[in-house]
Amino acid sequence: MAQPIYKLIDDLPKRGLTPALLGSLDWVVPGEYTNITNFEEMIQSVTGSADQAHIQRVGERAIYLFNDPSQGYQRALWLYQTIDSTQALAGTMSFVSKIAENISFLSFLDRLTPKADTTQAVDLGLKLVAEIVAFCSLNGIPGDSVGDFVESLSDYRHEALMRMGALVCVDGVLPLGPDFISKALGMLDKSGASDLASSERFQRVRGLIPGESTKEQLSFIEKGLESISGWATSFVSQHGVTVEKIAGSVKGVSDRWEGSLDWVSAAIDMTTDYYEHTGIQTVARQCIRRAAAEV
User: Fold this and answer.
1) Which of 32, 171, 210, 229 is most buried (CB neighbours < 10 A)?
2) pTM for this one?
């Protein structure tokens, strides 16, 4: 069973590489994100109330809703945690691949690891799928409702919008370039279902992807990427997202995030868990919003 929702929020870090990464990208979604790491503060943020009795009632109801496995909150949390539990693996594989490309006597590693671009394409696709299925779990709709998810993106706020903004920046534009959707789709199409099935990262999370076979699951990943192409293009244009601006923002966060852009992207994968961090905040906000409507 998951930890209580209040503890999950209270245990989130106020400082560290993940909050620093999100803070460095504040310009992408200005004024949207506050790193709330206290359950009572989250209730106040959602309800606008400072009445302690009301806060107590909402908190108790939110805890009850989260603890009910039929409501989908724990499933959504599991998705966010699972996709981030493999993030370091993706970063490590990209990192090793880059070493193999740049150091000749380690070139044998090239035969053991996927090219960094392929790894990043899979990483991007899997995170997006996790977002789609988590959205569906939180809203009580079928997990393959891609259309409903795409329509909801215009209503994304707070932690959810920050998470999608970070996804576009550090998992999309930074490693793959401004045409990251088409590039990722091309890489996935080229690698195919057989290569996807041989990926340890995919094997660890395949249970969350709709589809009975690897081919069907690859198709769902591609469908998810295709579905947000218009939104992503508009988001990048409206918010002035460029490789140079992202790099300038994130490279100042840590001296471990230095070097070429593909190295930086791999290093971020290995040292942050922004999907789980903001995912916990999203799940808590959703629980609290519903609880406040019911008390």
Assistant:
1) 171
2) 0.88
**What are the residue ranges spanned by the domains of the chain?**
5-294
Distance CA 163, CA 93 (A): 23
Task: Note the pLDDT tens digit of each residue in 95-113.
Answer: 444 444 444 443 443 443 4
